[in-house]
Amino acid sequence: GAVVSQHPSRVICKSGTSVKIECRSLDFQATTMFWYRQFPKQSLMLMATSNEGSKATYEQGVEKDKFLINHASLTLSTLTVTSAHPEDSSFYICSARDPSGGAGETQYFGPGTRLLVL
Amino acid sequence: TQLLEQSPQFLSIQEGENLTVYCNSSSVFSSLQWYRQEPGEGPVLLVTVVTGGEVKKLKRLTFQFGDARKDSSLHITAAQPGDTGLYLCAGAHTNAGKSTFGDGTTLTVKP
To answer: What does the pLDDT look like over A27-52, one tens digit per residue?
Structure first.
């Protein structure tokens, strides 16, 4: 099946610093990737849709200047949490759609990144 | 706004019991995915169903897509502790962007 990697898996940072999270599709090209945030024992909350070569589409209530998304290639999307604060601490998960599959809209998820802001 | 209602939200059963999780919507989807997620990890795809009325089996798991492609169910036979996790359904549309996710079902199977 399609494999999506995410790096780093865990990060601890000081308040006010910026953190970059990478999402890579390893064995397919993904024109569309998604970034989610997940709180304990809850479902996924979509933050933004990342489109290769164009600006990301953010969900309502998500600050685009705080959560910078770059999708510069067909296999890499990055999420940068700028000036992170303790309330940004969460589990961030990316996913990618494999357009070559029979059901091209199926999303494959990365393993997630646990962010802790002190 | 498209909604995908998933039930039950929490389920705690004994090993060996059977269970069913439901996802219902008023929207028609071109496909529907089921995922299982364990704590601290990303969701893992279990199955994609595409055709109305389709039934897929994955060992002790049986997935069904409604005839009208608006709803789906996941049935687990003889649940085991290893089945414990968060189960998520997601409805998708061809050539659309984001999928619609259910709120998830947290399953605990006690030995």
So the answer is: 888 889 999 999 988 889 999 999 88
If one counts every other C-beta atom within 10 angstroms of the C-beta of residue A36, the result is 25
Contacts of A102 in chain B (CB under 8 A): 48, 50
Q: Which residue of A has its CA nearest to B106?
A: A41
Say if the Cβ atoms of A44 and B41 lie within 8 Å: no
Handedness of CA B98, A37, B50, A24 (dihedral sign): positive
Per-residue HEC secondary structure of A13-76 comes to ECCCCCEEEEEEECCCCCCEEEEEEECCCCCEEEEEEEECCCCCEECCCCCCCCEEEEEEECCE
Cβ–Cβ of A1/B45 closer than 8 Å? yes
Q: Which residues pair with B54 in a beta bridge?
A: none
Please choose, from the candidates B52, B73, B43, the residue with its C-alpha nearest in 3D space to the C-alpha of residue B61.
Answer: B73
Contacts of B51 by beta carbon, 8 Å cutoff, 6+ apart: B65
Q: Letter for the amino acid at B12?
A: S
Nearest alpha carbon to residue B86 among B100, B73, B103: B103
> Which tens digit of pLDDT belongs to each residue from A59-115?
999 999 999 999 989 999 999 999 999 999 999 999 998 877 655 578 999 999 999
Taking CA–CA distances from A51, the nearest residue in chain B reads: B97
